[in-house]
């Protein structure tokens, strides 16, 4: 634990934080652009070339809006809600392996902030407390729509967390480790988990949509019924935090999908390129980023394709379809592993 | 003559009989339908967008487009309107009002006729841009131009007075395209008692 | 290791403060949230004891699931009813007996426990996933599986309570 090491980790953490925020910021623009193209429109294109400054303009607008707080709100919790949501959204990025190691002056520097041996569980822990920000915010607003939104968010997240964890257990059984770095390293080249766990992937991605409160599972904030859901009473940058956290969650979920099922920073024919270790690492990180961006796009693609679920449909899908499917997936995976070990 | 579909009783031939048949397994898992939906949306993603970037690019409008009105002056710059009220009478939306006055001796260079309109107002919110005022006008005073009536914040701002209707002296409005051969022939007909 | 000692004191302070606040807070929502904070502080203690698996599971189970359900319940309380909820004498006596029993158990535990037995936590590897799994599925296989029966019973009971027309 020398000073150099701590300094390196600090720099890495700040860089990753910055990238997450930047990606989230530009996801808002990409979302609007993508929505535009899906609907045969152009999307925002007035602020800068191709609307490149639109996120800045949106941010400025949010900053200059009136900070409104309902008179009957619980003051402390009302402020705690969005800040907690933002904080928790950013926490997960610590354990995601953003790339392999960099060799500088003979020392290996990992592009992962913390390679803890319970990485997968850590992600679930963060996911499971992610609901607090929404619940606290929705309750503290003292508004019935916000409350219903918060209640919906809580039950939805608890329901889909189960199926999500179950779908991951199959992966963990296959790889025999809870460390995300090890899981990625096992998917060297084209040996991705998606080929072995297509059902696990399907369940995981559906649950990821539900956990991010993204369409078609955006019931906590569905405009047609609940005005704005849990953030009905929020304005200015506090609302901005909620909206922003959604995009960060989307980014992190995409990163998790890419890590667990699509080989993270591995890419096909990576051994045949005859590149140096550092070049390979940087290329791998770029490939990882491309994978993440594809899934961010996929999130948007789904949003502008599928209609919103009804609440009973949501619950039925979660408990009666995904959860049994995930359990069957675990059983089948266990069975196959058993047979393989006995051969 | 439209033929009525004997099976469905439909005029358009596009209606479908509702069936409550049991869904097949492929339909019940929804995934094929969802994938199909993705195909449709991604098809639209690569389509040319229908947007026209308005202030820079404008949609082409018809040669005889009927937009904002103009009260014409004659060659010497005198207002042609004589406040006869025929335009107001012909207006199906009752958008036009006017107050007439007698021309003074020293106003000879301002108004062509002995009688003129001191107040001439068109309510652009009522106007349906049918062009009947233009047709009714015996003095060739009112014309519809290809200008678009801009949006505004207050209803009262849509009542256009003479300040916004009479053509400015320095910037004459060309309305020759409104005078098609048919219109000109009609106007020449002395039996209709037009006096150019 | 000075750093982790400071961490220990900070976490202990947070845990005790939050636990006290659970009792003192007037609003039920605040109580629940302070309880969550206490759980987080305890999870921090687990990490200091080199039991990362326990720490994370503690957060998933307690903070992520149980406390969320608590908040869920509190959110649906009618907050227009101000003041204390009336408690019957019987309830007071019952709670006094239950609390007294818990106190006695704790005293009994600490009386026999030798505080000098504490070892360096970094040498203790039992909290890591692999070791814990081996212990759980080899030495304590039967109790572990039996506890799942307990959960099943609890679930069946909950369903029974939830369905009014089944007797």
List the helices and strands and how they pair.
The complex is a heterotrimer of chains A (343), B (196) and C (167).
Chain A: H1 3-38, H2 54-64, H3 75-91, E1 101-104, E2 107-110, H4 119-129, H5 131-140, H6 144-175, H7 180-185, H8 198-211, H9 223-226, H10 236-261, H11 277-303, H12 311-342
Antiparallel strand pairs in A: 1-2
Chain B: H1 25-28, H2 31-45, E1 69-71, H3 86-90, E2 96-102, E3 115-123, H4 132-136, E4 142-144, E5 159-160, H5 162-165, H6 181-188
Antiparallel strand pairs in B: 1-4, 2-3, 3-5
Chain C: H1 2-24, H2 28-48, H3 52-75, H4 89-112, H5 129-139, H6 141-162
How would you describe this structure to a colleague?
- The complex is a heterotrimer of chains A (343), B (196) and C (167).
- Chain A has 343 residues and is mainly α.
- Helices cover 66% and strands 2% of the residues of chain A.
- Chain A starts with a helix and ends with a helix.
- The mean pLDDT of chain A is 84.
- The mean pLDDT of chain B is 83.
- Chain B is built from six helices and five strands.
- Chain B has a domain of 124 residues: Alpha-Beta Plaits, CATH 3.30.70.3270.
- In chain C, α1 packs antiparallel against α2 and α2 runs antiparallel to α3.
- Chain C has six helices and no strands.
- Chain C has two domains: 92 residues, NADH-ubiquinone/plastoquinone oxidoreductase chain 6, subunit NuoJ (Four Helix Bundle (Hemerythrin (Met), subunit A)); 40 residues.
- Chains A and B meet through α1 of A and α2 of B.
Radius of gyration of chain B: 27 Å
Radius of gyration of chain A: 21 Å
Overall geometric form of chain B: elongated
Number of domains of chain A: 1
Question: Percent of residues of chain B in helical segments?
Answer: 10-25%
Side by side, the strands of the main sheet of chain B go 2-3-5
Count the E strands of chain A. Answer: 2
User: What does the largest sheet of chain B look like?
Assistant: 3 strands, antiparallel
Provide mean pLDDT of chain A, rounded: 84
How would a crystallographer describe the biggest sheet of chain A?
Answer: 2 strands, antiparallel
Task: Give structural attributes.
heterotrimer; A: 343 residues; 12 helices; globular; C: 167 residues; mainly alpha; Four Helix Bundle (Hemerythrin (Met), subunit A); 2 domains
């Amino acid at each position: 634990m020398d000073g150099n090491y701590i300094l390196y980790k600090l720099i890495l953490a700040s860089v990753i934080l910055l990238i997450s925020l930047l990606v989230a910021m530009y996801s808002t623009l990409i979302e609007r652009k993508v929505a535009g193209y899906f609907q045969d429109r152009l999307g925002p294109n007035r602020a800068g070339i191709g609307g490149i400054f639109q996120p800045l303009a949106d941010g400025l607008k949010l900053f200059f809006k009136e900070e409104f707080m309902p008179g009957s709100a619980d003051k402390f919790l009302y402020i705690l809600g969005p800040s907690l949501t933002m904080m928790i959204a950013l926490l997960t990025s610590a354990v995601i392996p953003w790339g392999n190691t960099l060799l500088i002056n003979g020392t290996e520097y990992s592009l992962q902030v913390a390679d803890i041996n319970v990485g997968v569980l850590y992600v679930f822990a963060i996911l499971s407390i992610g609901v607090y920000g929404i619940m606290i915010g929705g309750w503290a607003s003292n508004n019935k729509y916000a409350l219903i939104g918060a209640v919906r968010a809580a039950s939805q997240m608890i329901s889909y967390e189960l199926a999500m964890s179950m779908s991951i257990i199959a992966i963990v059984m296959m790889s025999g480790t809870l460390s995300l770095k090890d899981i990625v390293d096992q998917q060297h080249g084209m040996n991705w988990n998606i080929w072995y766990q297509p059902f696990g992937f399907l369940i995981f991605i559906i649950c990821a949509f539900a956990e991010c409160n993204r369409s078609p599972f955006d019931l906590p904030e569905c405009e047609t019924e609940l005005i704005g859901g849990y953030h009905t009473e929020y304005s200015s940058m506090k609302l901005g935090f909620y909206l922003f956290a959604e995009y960060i969650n989307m980014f992190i979920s995409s990163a998790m999908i890419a890590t667990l099922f699509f080989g993270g920073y591995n890419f096909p024919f990576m051994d045949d390129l005859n590149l140096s270790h550092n070049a390979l690492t940087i290329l791998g990180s770029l490939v990882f980023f491309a994978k993440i961006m594809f899934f961010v796009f996929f999130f948007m693609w789904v949003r502008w394709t599928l209609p919103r679920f009804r609440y009973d449909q949501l619950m039925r899908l979660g408990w009666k379809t995904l959860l049994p499917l995930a359990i069957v997936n675990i059983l089948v995976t266990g069975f196959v592993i058993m047979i393989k070990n006995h051969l | 003559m439209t033929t009525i579909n004997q099976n469905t009783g439909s005029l358009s031939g596009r209606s479908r009989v509702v069936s409550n048949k049991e869904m097949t397994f492929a339909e019940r898992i929804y995934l094929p339908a969802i994938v199909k939906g993705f195909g449709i949306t991604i098809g639209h993603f690569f389509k040319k967008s229908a947007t026209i970037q308005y202030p820079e690019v404008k949609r082409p409008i018809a040669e005889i487009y009927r937009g904002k009105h103009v009260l014409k002056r004659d060659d010497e710059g005198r207002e042609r309107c004589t406040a006869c009220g025929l335009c107001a009478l012909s207006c199906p939306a009752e958008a036009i009002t006017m107050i007439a006055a007698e021309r003074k001796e020293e106003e000879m260079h301002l108004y062509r006729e002995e009688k003129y309109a001191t107040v001439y107002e068109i309510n652009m919110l009522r106007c349906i841009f049918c062009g009947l005022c233009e047709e009714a006008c015996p003095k060739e005073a009112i014309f519809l131009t290809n200008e678009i009536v801009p949006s505004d914040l207050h209803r009262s701002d849509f009542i256009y007075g003479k300040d916004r209707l009479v053509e400015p002296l320095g910037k004459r409005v060309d309305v020759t395209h409104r005078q098609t051969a048919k219109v000109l022939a009609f106007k020449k007909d002395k039996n209709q008692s037009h006096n150019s | 290791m000075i750093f982790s000692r400071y961490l220990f004191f900070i976490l202990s302070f947070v845990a005790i403060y939050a636990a006290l606040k659970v009792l003192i807070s007037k609003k039920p929502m605040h109580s629940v949230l302070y309880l969550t904070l206490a759980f987080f502080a305890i999870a921090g203690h687990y990490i200091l004891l080199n039991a990362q698996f326990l720490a994370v599971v503690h957060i998933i189970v307690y903070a992520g699931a149980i406390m969320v359900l608590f908040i869920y319940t509190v959110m649906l309380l009618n907050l227009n009813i101000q003041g204390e909820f009336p408690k019957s004498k019987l309830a007071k006596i019952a709670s006094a007996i239950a609390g007294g029993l818990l106190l006695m158990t704790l005293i009994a535990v600490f009386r026999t426990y030798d505080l000098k037995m504490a070892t360096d936590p970094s040498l203790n590897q039992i909290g890591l996933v692999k070791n814990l799994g081996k212990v759980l599925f080899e030495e304590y296989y039967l109790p572990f599986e039996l506890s799942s029966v307990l959960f099943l019973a609890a679930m069946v009971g909950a369903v029974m309570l939830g369905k009014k027309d089944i007797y």
